[in-house]
Amino acid sequence: MIADIHALAGAYVLDAVDDLERAAFDRHLSECDACRGEVGELREAAVRLAGGTWSVPPPRLRDNVLDEIRKTRQLPPRAAKPVVAPAGRRRRLVAVAAAVVLAAAGAGTAAYQIQDQRVRDAQASAAATRAEQERVNSILASPDLTVRTQQLDGGGRVTIAYSRLRDAGVVSLIADAPPTGGRVFQLWTVHATKPVDEGVLAVGQTSVVKVIDHMPSASDVGVTAEPAGGSRVPTDPMLADLKIV
Amino acid sequence: MQRRADAMAERGTGRRPDHLTPVPTAPPDADELLRAVARGDEPAFARLYDLVAPRVYGLIRRMLKDPALAEEVAQEVLVEVWRTAARFDPASGSATAWVFTIAHRRAVDRVRAEQTAAARTMRAGAAAIDTPYDSVADEVSGRLERQQVRRCLDDLTELQRQSVTLAYYQGYSYPQVAELLGTPVATVKTRMRDGLIRLRDCLGAGVAA
Q: Which residues belong to any copy of the Anti-sigma K factor RskA C-terminal domain (chain A) (predicted)?
């Protein structure tokens, strides 16, 4: 995927890629001036396709939107991005993995906002999500970050990124499908051979990004399939088991 | 048609010449408006809304088919534009492109969510309905834009056109497009890119808002 990533420029602009490809391509863009130029130009062309879809929105949309913005706090400008010098393959892999975790965090937010129809609830939880996302970002920015990725049994992947300095880590689970039989994913850490529940996903939920405190002092981060609502001890087999060393 | 003519007549003759000019005389500039929006300027946001909402709504409606759903997603997108206006980076492209990138991605997310849930009901007749719009000038420039886009799409090879439009208007991923067209994935990926390049060259320095 990385080798011919440049060929992905068109699909990327058309949003015809999946989250992992998008994260990888975003990463590629941050290191490639020429590609940024090309993507910018292709995007202007793609946008013109939207011009062909002119359709008058219902007048109440205008009122609703103007109403809503009066209640919506604006984000501050982004701080200048630190330039990451390409420094060897390992560092780059770490950065790609971190970008994947970040992208998954973003996707989670969007999915949540879309699922929830009630705007006020969505705003409250979006604020919580943003706070969580800031924690995720701060962990991912730590200088001693270690990143591991493993395939999930049944399709998908689990990525963990942890920092001893922060005594915390981030786990990202992106499954191709929910577990069979109405079961759900549950996250675990293992501390001194004892499993600790780190959260249960909802029925049908296939992705999550979560901060786990004290992750570096655990020996494992694992994922199992459990009955809805979760279990007190993990049910074998582990669908993923990432070792922390 | 009749309704439209009546509406024009009602506006009176004083403003007609302006409205019949294909290119609006002093079009509000999206980049400028977005900069003001980033500073919390609500009237500027209202003007930006008027400039982009018909296309945002039209695009989302075309992709999602369901008008009620399209309205909901369009609202999310436009509020998101307000919320994140200060994050817009002019170096990465025009304000209009930024807005439609948000709109398209949000609509694709919704399309994919529905595909995953296998709940997507394919409805025939995806074409957007021509509704009389408040401003005749806007409508004229909209129609010109539509003609030019159509002409440039006709300029593409069949495979380029299908690859680009299935992804952009239907929200399909490139592997899905490849399957639909019975074409290798790598080919579709390439056609998306060279199709867009050709589209860019054809549209040239056109009337982008």
A: 93-237
